[in-house]
Amino acid sequence: MKKCSDFVLNMDESVTLAAANRAKELKSEGRDIIDLTLGQPDFPTPENIGKVAIESIQNGKASYYTQAGGLPELKKAVQNYFASFYNYEIETNQVLITSGAKFGLYAFFQSVLDPGDEVIIPAPYWVSYVDQVKMAKGNPIIVQATQENHFKITVDQLDAVMSDKTKVLLLNSPSNPTGMIYSEEELRTLGNWAVEHDLLILADDIYCHLIYGDEKFTPISSLSEEIKKRTIVINGASKTYAMTGWRIGFAVGDEEIIAAMTKFASQTTSNPTAISQYATIEALNGDKTQVEFMRKTFESRLNTIYPLLSEIPGFEVIKPNGAFYLFPKVKKAMEMKGFTDVTAFTTALLEDTGVALVTGAGFGSSENVRLSYSSDLTSLKEAVQRIHSWMNSSN
Ligand code: PLP
């Protein structure tokens, strides 16, 4: 008997998890490993949030299923958050609380795509978009943004791939893996292009509070009524509040699409964990001191580590102003070390130096590696030092 479906057998494993697993394996063998693969804040969830979660267990509130679309009180908190941060007045029937932003994305694709519908995905992209579109029987259409163009796509590139099957333009700013942020003007151009072609916009804003220097986050949904009407925003608690383990995301936008996604969620997850939903009300409404502390810490790490990384022979890196990743181009470094494949390069780096990065291959880039600076500064400096020495040494 053939036990598993062709679809799952052909699906790629997340490269991030694969790299993290190999790092863990080597660590368990006693190797001195610095793991910079992680896509999550290295801070514990702020105490005030945890406290509310514990209370929700103690007072029995978290014992039961919640509404499939999420607790009304949490939807209200998301509504207030959108009014204050996005300057976007929404009704609560435009909100769906999801089991992580990842499930919000999945529910979106499942709810809007018919077989063969195309989703434009700018590369480098977050690892799960492509497989999720395929799971919904859609076609991912990759538009390659280059490092030379600061990892930003252009309207000319979009024109070149536009077809009568195109349904969605996906944007992720700040980006995982590049940390790149589109300016207001760039977003306006992309948004107007989507309006002109009558497309939906999927705005994955999960890193919107991790912004550094003079950079500013512009929600694409704020740029015009026409853009807003066709934009579904995906956001969540994971990155902003150091709550990756709690699995809470939210999707906001068109009432009809949110209703369809809610129906889909009701048949798949039933509801996101009640404890986490209560905790997220506190995250959104409560004290933000710790959130700002984490943001500032990321910024100071970026400012320390970026110049050191830039000095490594063969590493070409642009300074991002968002998220917590650096995405250096290592084409020259690969040549210097005799590699043609970036995954083999990343594996050799790990085996030789104990520094775990993620190959760019899974992000749609065959010349880059991703370094997460969600780690303490001592480890980060040591990691960069080891990579530097490795690049200086002969093969
Ligand atoms: N979108 C992007 C760009 C991400 O990097 C991630 C997590 O790494 C997610 C969505 C999913 O976040 P969540 O933990 O809320 O599922």
CA distance, first residue to last residue: 47 Å
What CATH architecture of the largest domain do you see? Answer: 3-Layer(aba) Sandwich
Tell me the number of strands: 12
The amount of beta strand, in percent, is: 5-15%
Give the count of helical stretches. 15
GO molecular function: pyridoxal phosphate binding; transaminase activity
Enzyme class: transferase
GO biological process, one term: amino acid metabolic process
Domain Aminotransferase class I/classII large: 32-387
Q: What's this model, at a glance?
A:
The protein is of the alpha/beta class. The chain has helices at residues 6-10, 15-28, 47-58, 72-86, 100-112, 128-135, 155-161, 184-196, 225-229, 255-266, 274-285, 289-310, 331-337, 342-353, 377-392; strands at 34-35, 95-98, 118-123, 139-144, 166-172, 200-204, 231-236, 249-252, 325-326, 355-356, 358-359, 369-372. The strands form three sheets. A seven-stranded mixed β-sheet has the order 2-8-7-6-5-3-4, sandwiched between helices.
Explain what this protein looks like in three dimensions.
This protein is of the alpha/beta class and 395 residues long. It has helices at 6-10, 15-28, 47-58, 72-86, 100-112, 128-135, 155-161, 184-196, 225-229, 255-266, 274-285, 289-310, 331-337, 342-353, 377-392; strands at residues 34-35, 95-98, 118-123, 139-144, 166-172, 200-204, 231-236, 249-252, 325-326, 355-356, 358-359, 369-372. The chain has two domains: 6-44 and 289-392, Aspartate Aminotransferase, domain 1; 47-285, Type I PLP-dependent aspartate aminotransferase-like (Major domain) (Aspartate Aminotransferase, domain 2), CATH 3.40.640. Helix content is 44%, strand content 13%. Helix 6 (128-135) links the parallel strand 3 and strand 4 (139-144). It is globular and about 60 Å long. The mean pLDDT is 96. Its cofactor is pyridoxal 5'-phosphate. InterPro entries: Aminotransferase_I/II_large, AspAT/PAT-like, NHTrfase_class1_PyrdxlP-BS, PyrdxlP-dep_Trfase, PyrdxlP-dep_Trfase_major, PyrdxlP-dep_Trfase_small.
